[in-house]
C-alpha cells in the first residue's frame, strides 16, 4: 500500500505479485489471504490503467470468493463491487450496473 500511496504503481505491482506467489505456495489458491492478495494485485493493475488485466483477475477473484464464501458474504460482495468499478471504467455500463444491483 505504501508504494501505491506514493504513486509507485509498478513497484506495488511487483510486490503484490511476489506476495501472491507466496500465499499461493504456502496457503493455496483458495485461501482467504490469497484471495485478498489477488484483489490487491488487481487494484494495482487498475491504478496503472491496465484495465483488461485487472478485469480478468477480478473475475477470477469473484469466482473463487463465490465458491469459498458463498454469494452473500461481504468478501464476495466487495469483489463484485471492485469488478463493477473496473467494468464501468471500461464503459461496460450494462454489466457494471447488473453487478452493482446484485451487491
UniProtKB/TrEMBL annotation:
Coiled-coil region(s) at which residues?
none
Organism superkingdom: Eukaryota
Note the Pfam families from the entry: TPR_10, TPR_12
> Which InterPro entries does the protein's record reference?
NLR-like, TPR-like_helical_dom_sf
Protein name (Swiss-Prot/TrEMBL): Kinesin light chain
The organism of origin for this protein = Polyplosphaeria fusca
Amino acid at each position: 500500500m505504501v508504494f501505491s500511496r506514493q504513486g509507485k504503481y509498478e513497484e506495488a505491482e511487483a510486490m503484490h505479485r511476489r506476495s501472491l506467489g507466496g500465499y499461493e505456495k504456502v496457503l493455496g489458491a483458495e485461501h482467504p489471504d490469497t484471495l485478498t492478495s489477488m484483489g490487491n494485485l488487481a487494484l494495482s493493475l487498475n491504478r496503472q490503467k491496465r484495465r483488461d488485466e485487472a478485469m480478468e483477475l477480478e473475475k477470477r477473484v469473484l469466482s473463487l470468493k463465490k465458491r469459498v464464501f458463498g454469494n452473500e458474504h461481504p468478501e464476495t460482495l466487495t469483489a463484485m463491487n471492485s469488478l463493477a468499478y473496473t467494468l464501468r471504467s471500461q464503459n461496460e455500463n450494462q454489466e457494471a450496473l447488473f453487478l452493482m444491483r446484485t451487491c
